[in-house]
Structures are given as structure tokens and as C-alpha cells.
Amino acid sequence: MKLDDIPVVGWIIGTLGGEDIDYGFPVFLLGLLFVLLGLDYIGVSQSQVFTLLIVTAPVWLPYITFKIFFHVYMNMVGKKFGIKSGRTIFEIVLPPEVFKSPEAMEIVFTQVFNAANPDNLMETYLDGKRPLPYTFELVSRGGAVKFYATIPEKFAQGFTDAMYAQYPGVELIPQELDYTAEIPNNLKNLSFMSFHFGKKKGSEFPIKTYIDFGMDKMPKEEEKVDPMTPMLEVLAGIAPEQQIWVQFHVKAHREKGFKLGQLKAKGTWEKGVAKEVEKLMTTGIDDPNEPGSFPRITPGQRSDIEAMERNADKAPFEFAARFIYINHKGEGNYDGGLFARMIRTIAQTELKNRNGLGIRWRTDYNYKFLSDPFGSKIPAMKKAELKEYKLRKLYPKSGAMAYKIMTAEEMATIFHLPGTVAQTPTLNRVGSTRAEAPANLPTGNITH
To answer: Where do the structural domains in the chain lie, given as residue ranges?
Structure first.
């Protein structure tokens, strides 16, 4: 049973959570009150409860201790594996012209997909082998827009090979200095806000992809409806003292089990897709078990089923994302209108009966006097967000922000190299096409 389904507790979580109020402390107090009242009602004293806990400690204490140790240990060896693997930051300088659809980026994502399945238990529990995270980033500093990617070092060559194969003329420039280093960790004299966004519904339902936008049909450049261009225009239009960083955080999705480092086995997401498709297929049938019964599927439902089945065949990634706003004019300088425009750029991925991207969390509360009465939680959250961004990590801050599955097709919709349909003047492109020297140039010494 989920917490949302518990009477009274579920109402508190739904009401406070819907108003963006931190409900952890009220739910804890309510739970403690229920326990005390329940014990008092059945005539059990606190001393008897304490005695029972001591007597049964040989049963529950080793179990809890092992669970905590296992979690901490696996995190430790996983971090060791990540540090040992290293990371390369590339600036992606766009070619002067891109004639390919986002399918080219989908192929790149598919080629860098690596589930990192261990060959034996030693690789799992001693080496900490697991899927390594990638990040793909859009950065605007005062309106100058750049593309970045951070790739584990062992996969960096594969990434560059895939990019050069799909995008002739692209430049991938390894960065010796991370652009995030210019922002101090203490955020002194800076306005800072972070937003997490992801799928609104379950992973089984795909967002509106470049195929739904018709970009797979390769229309003329001036006829393209590119889902990336609205975000690029917003990024290019910010003031000189402002910065916006957008980070897509992904890692390969794989099943769970003891061999892979988890105590509880769990399959991959395709089974969930099959269940949802089956629900749609049985819509409108009075008696599914009656011979000769056929589903009455609407054209919209048929389209949803086709999109879900097509999406299930693509490489799946565990996906989460954030965008960060920074203003150098000092604390308290926030541009609410800019936030709304950024949110609208991801809202275009939504289809009413399918799925879409939306804001799931932010470094703020609607009712600060309830959620942060002493004014210490929000500054701490902002510093933590900056630290995580720099480390290319993302820890979900609520159940709504849990990682969701995004396939290579979905990811290519929101991150690809745009063509000249993106007229953003500050978009960083290769200045000129490189060419070989003509073969008929005269040779020999030049005399003066």
C-alpha cells in the first residue's frame, strides 16, 4: 500500500504536496500520534513496548543493519567505479548546416547505450560495475548559447565516432576547465533557482516526439517544426547578467537483481508497456472472455498503441532533468516571466492522452512559513543543487521526481543538433567549412 492510499495520511500528503508544502514533519507527527493512541487504546504501556523491542532485537536489528550496510556499501563501490571511470566534458560546436532529422541524434544515443552488465559477482560487489551516467547540456550565458556533453572516459571515443558519423562538420572540443567553475559554491551575491522536470505520467506513455512533429519525413528547412527552437530562443533572449543551464541526466536502463547489485529482482520497463497496451486493447469490450468480442478502439487509441509499441523497441534510458537560473545582479533578482517561458518550452512535448514533460520540483515553497519557517532549508537546497550540477549527479527530492524511462527517440526530440530552422544568432556554430587544399596548386620554391 502506498502512503497516498492511507486514510487521513493520504489526504495530508495530497493536500500539502499539491500546494508545494513540505509534508514530512506533519505526517511524522500524525503517525507518532496514531501509534501512541493505539497503544493506549489496547492498554499497552510504553515500558512494555520498550521491553518488546529489546526482546525481539535479535530478529529485527540484524535485518535493518544489513539493509543499511548493503545500501551504504553499494553506494561506496559505485562511486569508486564512477571516479575510476573518469569523465570528459565536450563542447559541441554545431555545423554551419544540419540537414538530418533528430533521428541522427537518436542513433548516437543508441550507440552510446551501455548497460554495463557485470560478468561475475566480483565485478558487481568489488568493482561496483554499473551503468555510468551521461549528461547533455544546453547553456546560455548572457544569451550566448552552447551545447555540451559529459561522457565517461571509456565511452568518449565511441561518442565522438558516433557524432562525427552522423553530423559531418561538427566539432567536439574537450574542455580543460568546466564552465560551471565560474560560479562560487557559496552563491554569494547571486540569485539562484533550480527546477527539476520529467515525465508527468508513467514511463510507459511516450511524450510527443520528433516523429509526431513530422520531422522524420524530412520536410524543407523552412517547413520544419523543431521542438528545440522555442527553448533555444528563450536561452538566446536572456539579459547579459543572467545565465540558464539545462542538464539532461541519463543512464542506461537495465533489470535489477542480486547479480546486478540489488536485493530485490525487478524486470525492465517493457512489461509495463505491454500491460498498458493490453488495457487499451480491451477498452470497450463488454465481456473480454466472450468469443467473437472485438475491442472498439478509437483512432486516437490506435495512435497511442502504435506510439507505445514503437517506443518500447528503442534503447531505454533512466532520465531526469533540471534547469538552473543564475543572476549576477545580487540576491533577490528573479525573472518570473523567464521561468514561465522556459516551462512552456517543455510543455510542447505533451499530448493530452499520452504524456509530456513538466516541472516536478523547485528550490522554493509556496508557503515558506510552513515549509521553511527559519529560512535555512531553501539556501541549503540551492547550494546542494549547484553542487550536484557540477558533479553531474541528480538526486530526486520527491517521489514525483523519480527517474522515468525515456527512450533514444524521446531524448533525441529534446536534445539534437538543430538545422538552420533555428535562426538563433548567438547559437555557437562552426564558423566556416574546412576543406582540403586544391590538388592542382603549383609546387616548387617561390622566388621574390
So the answer is: 86-414
